[in-house]
Amino acid sequence: MSKKTRKRREHWYSGITEAIQMYIPGNKLYHTMPARRARTGTLFILPFIIGFIFFMVRPLVMSLQMSLNEVNLIRGGGFTMTWNDFYNYHYALQTDPNYNQYLVDEISRMVINTIATLVLSFVIAVILNQKFKGRILCRIIFFLPVILSSGVLPGIESSNEFYNMMTDIGNSVQNSSGVDIAASLQDLLQVSGVAGEVFDVVFQMINAIYDIVMASGIQIIVFLSGLQSISPSLYEAADVEGCSAWESFWKITFPMVSPLLLVNCIYTIIDFFMKNDNRVIEKINDVMYGVRMDFGVASAMSWIYFGVALLFIGISTFIITRAVKSYE
Amino acid sequence: MSKDNTVFIGKSQDFWTRNRRSEGYLLKRRVKEIVVSVVRALLMFGLCFMIIQPMLTRFSMSLMEEKDLYDSTIILLPRHVTLDNYRIVADLTSFPESMINTLWISIVISICQVVAATLVAYGFARYEFPLKKFWFACVVLLIIIPPQTIQTSLYITFAQFDLFGIIKALTGDTVNLRSSMAPYVIMSLTCMGLKNGLFIYMMRQYFKNVPMSLEEAAYVDGCGTMHTFVKIMLPDAVPTIASCFLFSFVWQWTDLFYSRNFLTSYRTFAVQMSTMVSRMGRYFSSDATQSVIVPNGRQLQLISIAVLFCCIPLIILYCFTQRTFVESLAMTGSKE
């Protein structure tokens, strides 16, 4: 109870009326210092407020409306909307042949990639934080993906049909000559029957290692900055007390950096969901601008997609905050 | 190495004597060090190579003649070296024009974005006002919402642009802003551009870490709000602003989504690149009215070259400014 009242006192205005009064000239609150500062602050973020209302909230509402209605385009611009009982959602999830499958595929890929990205970027950050020759060069190269995997670049080559065909041929050639160690190892392990599904996931990660490295530039920087902010005296103290490097890694490094896990996790998920080579986004674009030009279904699809993204961000936030708290 | 005193007892003695004196500990540690550094070097080399390798492949592929592509004995080194491909790609992407367009558009948009983000971030970091938490939640939401969700509605908003019906009342019709650059500039200035939420977040994180006493001192000395912001806060924030600018520039350079939707009348390189394949058939045929089928391998080669064209300016820029790139993100990492 006492905590709550104290929290309320941090505000110098109480309730909506006083908040509004600060903006009305002639009011007795108008000329107080906090009111003046509040007005300046509002002025500073005014561009954002305007933009958010006009170019985010309004289009969002409109697109929600579209997703709930049947949209008919009129020649020469404009469109009409008629209510159709969630038909668009129904269509997207049950009638459309590919959407479902793409969505599930992308989600499972996302979960695996996110975990792998977090682990890999953490390991790389720990290594880059050590002193060794060529460290600066390594750093430069590891942040290069920030540029090389942005915008149009990642999807452009794989969208070429031939590329996929060629990689298939490449794989089969490799298989026949027995060069592909990963695949043969995978076969071996599967034959011996050691936890098949777990290994499937691991091998999926290994096969996707290029994508994962290309997606982890920013995460490495964030982890690295976290590592550098740990005071060296902590390690010294641990060393004096007889901690091994392994112990001090788990007892000092990991807890100190773990809050950044959340930031990185959310960033990775968002980044993955918005990538150009994402098949769900391709599908949405296809429905929207392709032969069908069905804005209603496309809106419904993107809303489902957005909902799923939000759900996953929520889940991971929940899990990570729980996990991190246990360290404190 | 320096922390352990036993090692230093007889620095002048040879390794094995010292090892015996430390009862085998020295040897064990030396071996461990060597193993760690070898493993580390291998791992680093492998991963670095993986990042760079596609660029190298693209480069060697760009020099090959078409028949080299189908020769299975050629993997990296071209047998028939040619520079013809570069000319073809330059023609297909209308190279100098599209590059210049991309350059100035990226600069203009990045400046708009950074100016807006700096102002907003300063407001969030330093001022208390009603609904602050709510608006900041909106910034986070802005980072999360995929722009694809609102794509169509934005399209319509700008095709029939109107401010509260004022324009319609004056001229009798809504304005179609689709063919101009105005929509995108407006969006960037109001923080709704490409990844703009992220820039606000980064800048805010920086401003929050600047000691409050600086501004208080300025206030006591009679400095006004704008004056404080421009003269006290901005000069120190230059590195962070610069890195935001660079990020914005690079992302805008390679952006396809916003360019395709809002900059239809400007041929930017990213858009040219993505539509390149459809122009190839026409280009390679001798007759202008017909198109030939271009083999897929050839298509892929030409796309690779376009990717090289797109990346190389950015990589050069990055090599000179990599310190700035990393700096602001180090700020983002620091805790609330």
CATH topology of the domain at 97-149 and 215-325 in chain A: MetI-like fold
- Coarse shape of chain A: flat
- Output the CATH class name of the largest domain in chain B: Mainly Alpha
- In N-to-C order, the SSE pattern of chain A is HHHEEHHHHHHHHHHHHHH
Which CATH-level-2 architecture of the largest domain in chain B? Orthogonal Bundle
Q: Please name the CATH architecture of the domain at 97-149 and 215-325 in chain A.
A: Orthogonal Bundle
Description:
Chain A has helices at 2-9, 15-21, 33-68, 87-95, 99-129, 135-143, 145-148, 153-156, 161-177, 181-192, 196-207, 209-214, 217-228, 232-240, 245-274, 279-289, 295-325; strands spanning 69-73, 79-83. Chain A is mainly α. In chain A, strand 1 and strand 2 form a beta hairpin. Chain A is 76% helix and 3% strand. In chain A, helix 3 (33-68) crosses helix 17, helix 5 packs antiparallel against helix 15 and helix 16 (279-289) runs antiparallel to helix 17 (295-325). Chain A is built from 17 helices and 2 strands. Chain A has a two-stranded antiparallel sheet. In chain B, helix 5 (95-126) packs antiparallel against helix 12, helix 10 packs parallel to helix 16 (296-333) and helix 12 (225-254) runs antiparallel to helix 16 (296-333). Chain B has helices at residues 15-21, 25-62, 66-70, 84-92, 95-126, 132-144, 151-159, 166-171, 182-189, 196-209, 212-220, 225-254, 257-262, 269-274, 276-284, 296-333. Chain B folds into 2 domains: 5-52; 93-333, MetI-like fold, CATH 1.10.3720.10. By secondary structure, chain B is mainly α.
